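Pasting as-is:
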Amino acid sequence: MAFKGKPPGAGSGEMSRRTAALRPAIALTPEEASKARALRRRGAEPDAIAAHFGVPVVEVEKALVQMRSPRPETTRGTLNVTLAAHRLVMAERIGDEPLWRTVDRLLDELLRRRAEAMRRRPGPGRRPGAAPLPLFPAEGS
């Protein structure tokens, strides 16, 4: 199968010259900085890494600051829905509101209405002593 579209250019994936110029100078070569990051990923402390390379801890910390680290919790996720559910969300969207905000608003309304209906409904459909359903935090909180 032939490649479709424009192939990546020379140097794609490399750091931009502007980003490289803005970074502070480090007393480690790029290879040493890469090795320092690898040692840190394996659990070595910055003091031990600095001693290994014979440089001040500050220089090692500059190299380690440039490491990518995993986020402890994600702020977004992917939700696969049917085309009908997608059309519903798009129809409920207000202006150019982000889709995540539309979905949050719709789910918040559903949970509020369900909680209100449970408060009004007497009888077996209601669990005695059941805690109210948690609602999404209000916008801006």
